[in-house]
Write the structure tokens for this entry.
Amino acid sequence: MKCDVAIVGAGPAGLLLGHLLRQAGIDAVIVERQSAEYVLSRIRAGVLERTTTDLMVQLGLDTRMLAEGQLHSGFNLADGERLIRIDIEDLTGSQVMVYGQSEVTRDLIDAAPERGLEVVWEAKDVALHDIESAAPSVSFEQNGKTQTLTAKYIAGCDGFHGPSRRAIPEGIGREHERVYPFGWLGILADVPPCHEELIYANHANGFALASMRSNTRSRYYIQVPLDTDLAQWPDERLWDELAVRLGPDAAAHMTRGPAIEKSVAPLRSYVFEPMRHGNLFIAGDAGHIVPPTGAKGLNLAASDVTYLSKALIARFKQNDETGLEGYAAKALARVWKSERFSWYLTNLMHRFPDHGTFERQMQLAELDYIANSRAAQISIAENYVGLPL
Ligand code: APR
Ligand code: PHB
């Protein structure tokens, strides 16, 4: 098999890139380890920056997002007593779109066949070869047969655990990492949200987040120790704790219901550089991870592929390689700024095991400063809606 661009991974990064390249008439094939059903069943964040919704508009895949997604003009920080509203529309002129990542993925997967975007699902033993050569390839096993997909370029969009980043020879790559000493216990339930906007709460018991997927489906999280056993958190205990951490206003409007999904996810900040080696280009979680505070993961994947698709299109349409040469530096500059914001919001809103009363007072003083300073609110708002491309 041959194509122009072989894409490893059919998460949001790989699917968006595949569609953008197909739209420009470039022959791209995606190789994915899992089934489409499995990819769709993964529950992730659901706050889209304008840069991300613009891509769906550009692809003409925005009908369901515009009909079912919710445009939010603000979000809230809570400090245990009050809600501090960050009016992102007033502060920046932009809004964010609340539309689940699995819905974005569904729209991209559903449109793939009609747009001639081939996705090889359930590919086993995916491996990258000759990434420094002019004919790099991806091998995989399908239905018991080994196949080789030879391309001009490979896009590594295979998430944190995929093989692409690891194909870069040791000694060339550099990792920057921070692992946080807690996780998020998330619950998805078919109940109306407790508030019309998101609430990120810093309570003495730890962080909590009230989010939503629609007017009838809510998503909540609490900070928990990493070794938390889910059995210790029956639904009622979790609702009780959410009510405490989110504060009395939210608690008064909280509807309880059975969990459709409940799980603990670790928090990590991670950046790998460079995002290019030879003819392999890394995008999305394959190159960087942010903690979910601020919901930047999918949005960073979208900005990476915005840069990468433009660079590849210039290469194939005008034989211009300058975009490809600049990709890694350009993408990383935005990645680091999103890393900074996610790290900042994580530090501001969580209880850390080594925090004493001083660190706690610093958090509360900063929240009070934010509550009373338009300058501080603008800084948070412009990062939340997404820095310019
Ligand atoms: N071969 C092929 N595909 C692979 C392999 C492999 N060996 N290993 C992993 N993959 C696939 C995964 O199954 C997944 O579908 O790569 C895809 C990577 O998708 P994501 O992890 O979603 O990463 P990305 O597309 O970069 O999206 C970034 O979306 O999933 C969230 O937390 C993520 O919010 C972040 C954003
Ligand atoms: C979510 O709805 O799952 C969500 C929203 C905002 C975040 C993280 C997760 O910052």
